[in-house]
Amino acid sequence: MRRRLILPAIPLALAGVVLAGCTATGVTALGQSVDDTAATQTTTAVVDTDLASSAVLAANDAATVVTDDEWSDAAAVDIDLEDTTASTTGEGVAIDGATVTITAAGVYRLSGELDGSVEVAAADDAQVVLILDGATISSSAGPAITVVTADDVVISLAAGSTNTVSDASSYADDAAANAAIYADADLTVSGTGALDVAGNGNDGIASTDDLAVIGGTITVDAVDDALRGKDALVVSGGTLDLTAGGDAMKSDDDTATRGYVWLSGGDITAASGDDGIAAATDVVVTGGSATFSATGDSSDADASAKGVTAGVVIAIDGGALEIDATDDALHSDGSIGIGGGTVTLAAGDDGVHAEAALTIADGVVTITSSYEGLEATDILISGGTVDVMASDDGLNGSGSASADETSTGGTSADGTDAEGTAGAQAGAPGGGMGGGMADTGETIVVSGGTLTVDAGGDGIDSNGSVSITGGDILVSGPTTAGNGALDSNGGINVSGGTLVALGSAGMAESPDASSAQAWLAASVTGSAGDTIEITDAAGAVVATFTAEKDFETVVFSSAELVSGSSYTITGSGGTSVTATTGEALAGGMGGGSAPGAGAPGGPGQRP
């Protein structure tokens, strides 16, 4: 049985437990200055190990790749392409007019121009290597190169050569072979030469089994998908420039151990009308560099092109991935694990969206634009550097069991507070705005790393709970009253790390009074660029930080704070307020509580 986290999501608190030591340090990486004398503490970071790339790959069938050391061109059979026919003096080749058929295992070198097609019809256990050495193959009736039968086929691009293949302008709906290069066998593309592929009727390069690209400079322009490996699509080398009306890269076998895409090397640039990568099961990135522009039809209001989409898991542990997508940049119907690499995302909808769990353990994740930055049922950030820019929520812990958008704040079309109305209708205590929506079990856990959020809606928003046990967090929240820098239905517990949250006052939420680490919350009005300073009763500076946006509230937590003590919070204009740790913004103690529990903040305090 496949070891994989699939819906419904397992709450992170119930997943495998990994102990990770972390040191509570200052937040200088966030443009702030905090005394770095905090004690070292051990925290519990919850990680589903199945989201590591090694585990995901181990759960899949290994793809077939024929490397260059598995064959030799010393005895290659030369085939001269001559307009509408061809010639050869070797064995294993049948020529019928403009159709060249390879009938036996071996290595074949093709040169010249052919207005026709090349077919491979060898034994089922045959390995066939086609060396393209200055070959141009154009077919007006179907694929330029078709593999009918064989075990493994290699298309090797000779050093210094430029090769071109193009196919028919259309295919019948029931056509078995419908790509410029079509293989009903495992196919490997290798070498150091160049290959231009025009998929005029449908796909560019397609295999019904595994498709591997390990070398070459390959340009594909396809009406539909540029590269498609049904069982698996793997890229470990080469330079790829892909243009697709459909998906740029695709694997669509929905068998549990197949239908995956693995990028471990190479340099990929892709522009697609649909998804950049579409995998029925998994997408794994461990190396290489890939840039995807999945923008679809900009004139179509319903365009939903995604950057990378997977049916089960996306696992990123290396490489560099840059995405610009009309819809989600990264999207999984299951879970997403980021354990390394550099990921830069711009999205018309979510930057990263997982229906189940999203974990970030290492690497650099930068979301330059999005509607919502990170969205999943369970979000765990235990390491790395994460920078989120969102027009709505920065982090959104939201699942199918929750009321999603209507339960996480914002204003309705008539300008009223949607969550406040919903809470009042549900009989939530406290009245007014919020007062206590139901905790539907989602979790947001930050146990390490550096997290920076700039959100037009809620900065960190969970329909369940928020737990901060480590890491450095800076939230620049909303400037309007309908949202807050922090928002939860099940409470915010802080036991480690450094938290700075600036935002508007209308829906502001404070951490729980039961939090093990002391925190401050105060109403302080300021403007973008203001320097905020926190001092203790003796006048010693505890922290300073600079506001990125206008703000009305400040929430701060650090190991430097002492429970029960008072501190002065001063803005650039000299205006200062005094706040005592543990006192909520609305005057009560603590943050969220479930309906019926008696929200302590009273009117105006969001659960």
Entry keywords:
single chain, 607 residues, mainly beta, 16-stranded mixed β-sheet, 2 helices, 49% strand, disordered N terminus
Shape: elongated
SSE class: mainly beta
Fraction of residues in β-strands: over 45%
Helix content: under 10%
Tell me the total number of β-strands.
Answer: 48
How many helices? The count is 2
Radius of gyration: 29 Å
Low-confidence stretches: 1-48, 401-435, 587-607
The rounded distance between the terminal residues' Cα atoms is: 41 Å
Would you write up a description of this structure?
- It is a single chain.
- It is built from two helices and 48 strands.
- Mean pLDDT is 85; it is low at 1-48, 401-435 and 587-607.
- The two termini are 41 Å apart.
- It is mostly beta strands and 607 residues long.
- The chain is elongated, with a radius of gyration of 29 Å.
- It has a domain at 14-47 and 438-580.
- The longest helix is centred in the last third of the chain and has 8 residues, at 418-425.
- The chain has a 25-stranded mixed sheet that branches.
- Helices cover 2% and strands 49% of the residues.
